[in-house]
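Technical annex, item 7. During the second reporting period the consortium partners agreed on a shared format for inverse folding records so that results from different sites could be compared directly. Each record opens with the tokenized structure and is followed by the designed sequence. A conforming record, contributed by the partner at site C, is shown below for reference.
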């Protein structure tokens, strides 16, 4: 551990022993308030990775690991210190850096709590960027209907990782990326290869009450989609993250009247909203002067705080919207057809009192019934 300075025979100048070589790993013990100091052998221009993890057998009091890279000669800090997260219970932290000179670098290891003692496990290796930063450099990742995951690293505060994902045309791709170390969650964005953005997402800031903790995008027209992962906060980003991707299958109903699912009254239809802004359109032949009950019957008894339901906007055969969006939960909403012909019902995920729940149904049960007296 570290580098010792020794005097050679016959009063020769001190000889500096080599530092730890890439691939080195081991455990060190913190027994005092001063940090443990490791000296590392580096080459100019090479990217390196240093991992510190808390060893927690019974009786160890160490509460976390803080790593700080320093200049080997001046001991001045190089970049920001990085720390594990006690609150998040993420006990491992990774530091990446590119060496500017040949020789040695110093890595300090200490606890975030003064006077704490215990053991650290460390790993020192050479590294390489795991994914390119643009659509043309994107790395392929498989997407399955049962879901799959992969890991990535943001080697600097300006790093961007690009991953190429493929689902069939009309299918919904679901993506969730989250930090595996302390600090902020990464920003994610799905784009087309030409750069067109399809949506952004951050697991740490999405509205939990909406009950969709991922970024879902319908792959209209087909072709590959590109997932971009970036640090959210330059000073507090997590270097390591995991992503979960899933092919949620085709959209169950079209988004516009031309793609509507045509049903016959009385109708009972299952409706699944694949994303927060998904619209499912149904079509049905109605008779002028008849009264129809439009009802989301998912809940037998609606919640007293907030019910998620199929908000319904009705369009007549001439394409004219018939009033405002209808609330179909509870007793449902009644609609009177003014002319005979095919009407369209655009269903959207809506809330009776604003989103404030944790678990919502993936599939709704929607009914259209003729209730003319």
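Designed sequence (site C submission):
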């Amino acid at each position: 551990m570290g580098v010792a300075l020794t005097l050679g025979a016959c009063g020769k100048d001190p000889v500096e022993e080599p530092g730890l070589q890439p691939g080195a790993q081991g455990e060190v013990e913190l027994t005092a308030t001063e940090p443990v100091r490791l000296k590392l052998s580096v080459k100019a221009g090479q990217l390196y990775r240093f991992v510190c993890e808390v060893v927690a057998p019974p009786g160890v009091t160490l509460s976390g690991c803080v790593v700080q890279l320093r200049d080997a000669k001046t001991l001045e800090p190089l970049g920001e210190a990085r720390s594990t997260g006690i609150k998040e219970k993420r006990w491992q932290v990774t530091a990446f850096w590119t060496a500017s000179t040949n020789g040695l670098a110093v890595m300090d290891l200490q606890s975030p709590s003064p006077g704490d003692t215990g053991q650290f496990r460390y790993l020192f290796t050479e590294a390489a960027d795991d994914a390119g930063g643009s659509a043309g450099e994107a790395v392929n990742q498989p997407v399955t209907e049962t879901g799959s995951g992969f890991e990535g690293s943001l080697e600097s505060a300006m790093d961007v990782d690009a991953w190429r994902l493929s689902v069939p045309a009309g299918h919904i791709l679901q993506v969730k990326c989250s930090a595996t170390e302390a600090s902020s969650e990464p920003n994610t964005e799905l784009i087309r290869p030409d750069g067109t953005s399809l949506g952004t997402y951050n697991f740490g800031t999405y509205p939990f009450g909406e009950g969709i903790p991922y970024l879902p995008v319908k792959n209209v027209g087909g072709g590959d989609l590109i997932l971009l992962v970036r640090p959210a906060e330059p000073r507090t980003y997590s270097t390591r993250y995991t992503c979960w991707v899933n092919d949620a299958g085709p959209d169950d109903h079209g988004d516009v009247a031309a793609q509507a699912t045509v049903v016959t009254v009385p109708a009972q239809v299952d409706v699944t909203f694949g994303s927060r802004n998904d619209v499912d359109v149904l079509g049905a032949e109605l008779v002028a002067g008849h009264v129809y009950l439009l009802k989301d019957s998912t809940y037998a008894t609606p919640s007293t705080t907030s019910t998620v339901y199929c908000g319904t906007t009705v369009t007549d055969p001439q394409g004219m919207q018939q009033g405002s969006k209808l609330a179909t939960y509870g007793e449902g909403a009644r609609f009177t057809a003014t002319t005979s012909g095919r009407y369209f019902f655009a269903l959207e995920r809506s809330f009776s009192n604003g989103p404030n729940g944790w678990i919502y149904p993936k599939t709704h049960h929607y009914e259209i019934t003729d209730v003319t007296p």
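The CA atoms of residues 147 and 263 lie 32 Å apart. Residues 1-11 have pLDDT under 50 and may be disordered. All partners now use this format for quarterly exchanges.
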